[in-house]
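STRUCTURE REQUEST FORM
Protein name: Autoinducer 2 import system permease protein LsrD
Source organism: Spinactinospora alkalitolerans
Requested output: structure tokens
Priority: standard
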Amino acid sequence: MTRSAVRTAPGSLVREAAGRLAGGGSGTVFALLVLIFAVVFALNPSFAEPPSLLAFVKKAAPLVILAVGQYLVIVSGELDLSVGSLVGAQVVIAAALIDGEPDRTVPVVLLMIAFGAVVGLVNGLVTTVLRVPSIITTLGTMLVLYGAIRLWTGGAPTGALSEAFRQPGRGGIEDLPVIGQLPWALLILLAVGAAAIVLMRLPYGRMLVATGDNDTAARFSGVRVWRVRTVAFVLSSLLATVAGILIGGYAGVTAQVGDGLEFMAITAVVLGGVVLGGGRGTVVAAMAGALTVEALFTLFNQLSLPSTIQPTVQGLIIIAAVGYAARERTRRSPRSAEPQSPQPDTPMEPSRDGSR
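Status: completed
Returned output:
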């Protein structure tokens, strides 16, 4: 081995690691995130100070966590429109049941986790077992949760969240040098992100991507597609529950809590380069997409643009992503046109006289 090869090896490893981290053409989102932050810092230099950046991360953490859950569903070839209403339902239910009593915090959080798992399980089983398109299934769940909560509260949430419940969303480790406070939301976000990265490197993660890429081929390979996708829906709802706890702690209880979060999460995931239809994209890029969306809206605030521009931007991003996904399917269509082998689960049985 030459000296030059030895010298360049570390650089090559760094480039290879960076390529894997932002693989699948999703590296653009990282460049866009840096560009947006550069503009924000130029407009407001104080935003670059550690306390301001940590406050930004505290606010963005629920969306990033929602994006992780949405990524798991989208990369498997499905879509989850129910997470926004689920977040709202969880916060309203928590406020009504806790009603300011600290002793009720832990039991209510456990109930929220169970409720989130049930919602995800219903979404998954209806989609995979009953074969209802996921966009219809989760749209129905979204409307059921939205209507049920407003019927229960009359459009005006009651009760109050305890201080212990609100700590993860707005509290942290205090009196640290330079940064002041290290938010619990940041630590929770890092834990969720690390768990998601590990999950996607496990066999389940590979099966999830294979299912989204070609569920028929995955089924022939022995993957239980219905189970893989159902687990993705359950994880998405559980992460929406975590996001609801953080949002409730950060913003409190309002009638509008959770509204539109499902579309923000989808926007974040597709901005991160994850292809609608499944099989393409990384979870790290999806998380970067969520940070980019939050940074973009922060830039709009710095420019004093009206908040009504946000849905327009989200719509344009989703339309562009759908167009890109259609283009990817067109490129891959020649492969799907190849002749397929006979179904292995329908062998020809011999007749009674011995002939086939």
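Reviewer notes: The domain at 25-328 is CATH 1.10.3470 (ABC transporter involved in vitamin B12 uptake, BtuC). The chain has one domain: 25-328.
Form closed.
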